[in-house]
Amino acid sequence: MSVYQRRILPWLIDRGMRNRVMTQYRGRTPPRARGRVLEVGVGAGLNLPYYGDAVQHLFGVEPAAPLREAASGVADAMRFPVSLLDCGAEALPLEPASIDTVVSTWTLCSIPDVETALLEMRRVLRPDGRLLFFEHGRAPDAEVARLQDRLAPVLRGLAGCNPNRPIDRLVEAAGFEFEHIERAYFDGPRFIAFHYVGVARLR
Question: How far apart are CA 101 and CA 183, in angstroms?
Fold first, then answer.
């Protein structure tokens, strides 16, 4: 792994995750989590303060050591135990049907093998569990989608982001069905502003 991937890219991701738009919407998803929670792509722990008292234990997946180190300081101040996992979402070190809530915010765009990761999330969820997501992805407008396709190789190389992933179709293909989903443009450049926000359960 290069120095860029090991140190510079995690720093860039963390800076991006702290922008005004993400901070504005960050409180929409984590407060709905219950029980044993898995957060995929916990990063520097920016979501942790938004979780409520219904969380019993949180497992945070983060393969980037610098971000995991930053998250550890936040985790120590939480009211519930937090276990930070040094792994990718494609191979979760958790038992089947052991998690009540999976949380994914602005993460599915960056996982290398997102299809396998979603199947892993499905595997660890209990039958009555929920996937809570707040993700940006492929826009419905043809012109914007074409721009996303052109920019995807550049953004993937620079920031690990695939802006053109059809999040709703990927989630459904992994065996989930939506209890609720919102598809809309939020603030920001249109090629990264189209979002999928909602709740899914096992089908």
Answer: 21
Q: How many domains does the chain have?
A: 1
> What is the mean pLDDT, run by run of 10 residues, along the chain of 203 residues?
59 65 86 98 95 98 93 96 97 98 97 97 98 98 98 92 97 98 95 97 96
Q: What is the pLDDT of residue 23?
A: 78
Of 97, 165, 157, 106, nearest to 132 (Cα)?
106
How far apart, in whole angstroms, are the C-alpha atoms of residue 57 and residue 39? 11
Q: Residue ranges of the alpha helices (H) in the chain?
A: 3, 9-17, 20-25, 65-75, 114-124, 142-159, 167-173, 190-193
Q: Degrees (nearest 5) of the Cα angle 105, 184, 187?
A: 75
Residue 20: other Cβ atoms inside 10 A: 8
Which structural domain range is residue 189 located in? 3-202
Residue 188: give its domain's CATH number.
3.40.50.150
Look at residue 162 and give its three-state secondary structure: coil
Give backbone dihedrals phi and psi of 112, rounded to 5 degrees, phi first: -55, -50
